[in-house]
Design goal:
Number of strands: 7
Order of helices and strands: HHHEHEHHHEEHEHHEHE
Number of helices: 11
Radius of gyration: 20 Å
Distance between the termini: 50 Å
Shape: globular
Largest sheet: 7 strands, mixed
Strand order of the largest sheet: 3-2-1-4-5-7-6
Length: 316
């Protein structure tokens, strides 16, 4: 076994310990910050609006809300009528969710600009402008979406996010099945650095194709970096399957090791037309002979794509 694999594997073995597993479930990082949630949602909304969709989506679904359903709450505050939050582990608590909701409400009422790359340098996508999207979120729309009665109703549902009788919020944790949501019931699906960690990627795309209405949209930021698990950002492609399973340890999820081209292929397979895509390029330091046999056919573009943003539409 190569030396650079030993440390990730040893750490993974340690993470199998029961006490460590409990610690791992406490946080993902990111959506415990209201400004981050505000920035992420408005970036996805701005990209949607910039591609010939001037209407606020009615029903939205998010994969992997993480530390809070804050991005979904931002969607509701901007006029969406229903939010579905789907995750594999519950990280949030009601007290924090209410605090984030109140902070988000203040940001929308103040028409705060989108927090930009100076505040969140690694967040994608990057819209054409970081000004508050007043063309989309008009005063008339916000007057309705931020009304006192509506805010209070949403606050009540935040305390019971899995109640099937909710009007605004429904969260299911864990979710694994394509029938989690009704067929053709969702207008907009989004995720932020989640699809790079989904193990059953093909069935996830299948599920999204079933949930989405014909003509509905998807907006995904997909990260392929190893986040320090390996020395190089794409070093996971040198591990065989057993080595990677050991390195994963007690984590409920980790990079699925699919290159960006697999996501493009699944878009095509399940009838999603790509409307916009942007890539983050990173230098590759992995010689072909070091790659695990499954990854030896990867081309230069695949080996240097550290992330993508993709906006697509479900074809009728």
């Amino acid at each position: 076994m190569k030396f650079e694999k030993i440390i990730p594997i040893l750490k993974g073995i340690i993470l199998h310990l029961p006490g460590v597993k409990t610690v791992l479930k406490k946080s993902t990082g990111g959506t415990n910050n209201s400004r981050y949630c505000y920035s992420v949602w408005l970036r996805h909304l701005a990209m949607l609006a910039g591609n010939n969709s001037s209407e606020i989506p009615s029903t939205v679904a998010e994969l992997g809300p993480g530390d809070s359903p804050g991005t979904g709450l931002a969607a509701l505050l901007s006029g969406c009528k229903k939010y579905h939050g789907l995750d594999v582990v519950r990280y949030w608590d009601t007290k924090r969710n209410l605090q984030i909701f109140d902070e988000l409400t203040a940001l929308f009422k103040g028409r705060a600009p989108i927090p930009d790359s100076a505040e969140f340098p690694s967040v994608r996508p990057e819209p054409g402008t970081f000004a508050f999207p007043s063309r989309i979120l008009t005063d008339a729309l916000l007057s309705e979406s931020l009304s006192d009665d509506r805010l209070e109703a949403i606050r009540r549902e935040i305390c019971h996010p899995a109640d099937p009788g909710n009007k605004f919020i429904f969260c299911q944790i864990p979710w694994f099945e394509s029938d989690t949501l009704d067929s053709k019931s969702v207008d907009f699906i989004f995720s932020q650095a989640v699809l790079g960690c989904v193990d059953d990627l093909e069935n996830t795309y299948l599920a999204m194709s079933r949930w989405l209405k014909p003509g509905g949209y998807m907006s995904h930021t997909i990260d392929f970096k190893s986040h320090g698990i390996t020395k190089s950002w794409n070093g996971y492609w040198t591990f065989n399957d057993l080595e990677w399973a050991l390195a994963k340890g007690g984590r409920p999820f980790l990079m699925n090791r699919f290159p960006y081209s697999q996501h493009i292929a699944l878009h095509q397979k399940f009838g999603f037309k790509i409307l916009a895509m942007a890539s983050v390029r990173l230098e590759n330091h992995l010689p072909t002979h070091k790659l695990f046999k499954r990854y030896k056919p990867l081309n230069t573009e695949e080996l240097t794509t550290g992330g993508i943003y993709v906006l697509s539409r479900k074809e009728p």
